[in-house]
């Protein structure tokens, strides 16, 4: 059972998503008509058909019956039960970087799927990949492999004692934050000896 909602796919909604997410990297949005796009609002699959080729047929038929060229999924907490095989077929869209903006960050992840993506098969990579440490390099690497459209990495482990504090798309801001923290720590260490010397000088004058 697949339920698609077209009422949300208006020009205003699509324009808002386009400003928050890098949709132009994957789709020619200027040539996309809102009436040919829809959002997945509900999807349930019989476990018997939860295989790659069965899911492809199901989603192709959904596009045909609804007369849609592209479908979107807004991944929020309520979509936690979306079948994993469906997410594997869909393409995650990278959020746009915001350097200075008072606009609230979107509280959802965005996935899309069209006929081209259903016909193209991703290269499945089952090799174990372990990324250790929370740094600009590690976050940038994860950002690179998780948002690729040609490969599907099935065994990625991220190990960090500090925890994941920021969205994965904010690794540039994280790098700047780490540089500022390092600089502040260096300045603090440089100031400590001077304070000690001043204390020794005052004690000698008192004597």
TrEMBL record:
It comes from the Eukaryota. InterPro entries: CFAP61. Residues 179-192 have a biased composition (Low complexity). Residues 179-207 are annotated as: Disordered. This is Uncharacterized protein. PANTHER family: CILIA- AND FLAGELLA-ASSOCIATED PROTEIN 61. Residues 194-207 have a biased composition (Basic and acidic residues).
